[in-house]
Every structure is written in C-alpha cells, then in structure tokens.
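Here comes a specimen:
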Amino acid sequence: MKSSEDKTNVMRLLDKAKISYIPHAFAVEEGDSLDVHTAAQKLGKQPEEVFKTLVTKGAKGGYFVFVVPGTGNLDLKKAAKAVGEKSIEMIKLAELLPLTGYVHGGCSPVGMKKSFPTVIDESVLNLSTVTVSAGKIGRQIELNPADLIKLTRAKTADIVTAE
C-alpha cells in the first residue's frame, strides 16, 4: 500500500470521488524527453493509450483544456470548433504553472487550480483504460475513460490532426 506522501493531489481527488485508478510511476533522468512517447515506453503502454493534456486560450480570452492521445497532435481548427471559438492558440509555457498549478510534463486534466472547459479526443471512447498525468513529472494514473470524462466534466470530439 502506498503511503499518503506518495499520492499526488490528482490521486487524492480520485480517492475523494471514489474513482478507481491504477497509479504508475517511472524514473525521469536528466535529459529525458517529457513527451508522451517516453512516458508510454517507460510504462509499457502504447502511445495511443497515454493522453497528454494541452492548455489553450481562445480568441475571446477564455481558457480550454484538450486531452489527446500520444499518437496525435491537437488540430487547432477542430479544437476551436469543439468549444465554439473562432480560433485558439496554445498558452505560453510561462503561463502554465500560474494558471493550472502544474508544470510542463506534469499537467493533468484533473485538479487544475480552476475548472476549464475540457475536451477529450473521441478516440478515448475506444479504450478500456486511459492513462493521463497524475500531476507530477514521472507520475501517471490509469483509469476508465468514462470516469475521466465525468470527473473533468469533459465532452469528447474529434480534435486531432489526421495522420
């Protein structure tokens, strides 16, 4: 059994919501890439099962969270359409921590400082489990996609670029 010090805020929120999950941890070495492919490899998962969390700003000034598979890239046009914006752009790296409470490489769609409209790529509906950041670099959680959607009050849409 993990001690409470091993739990991230994301895990505590899942516990509070009585949502079951599998915690994963992996070592992050100096010079390691903080991308989803590296995380998937270290976890023994396929990149399409490990989703990354991206934070954007809309033309009207609102913020939006998009969660996409490691094999995909966010299509800004599709994403803007999904949230009813004319256009969206990625936020600057320096804005991430003050806005969400998370650092680059450890951003989770669960437990941000504020709740933002969230869209998860519809490919998540084809998975029995999805893995996302647990809120710290080198920490991931694996859970049922329906639980992630419910907890983040997300909607699903086709938001990745065609490969």
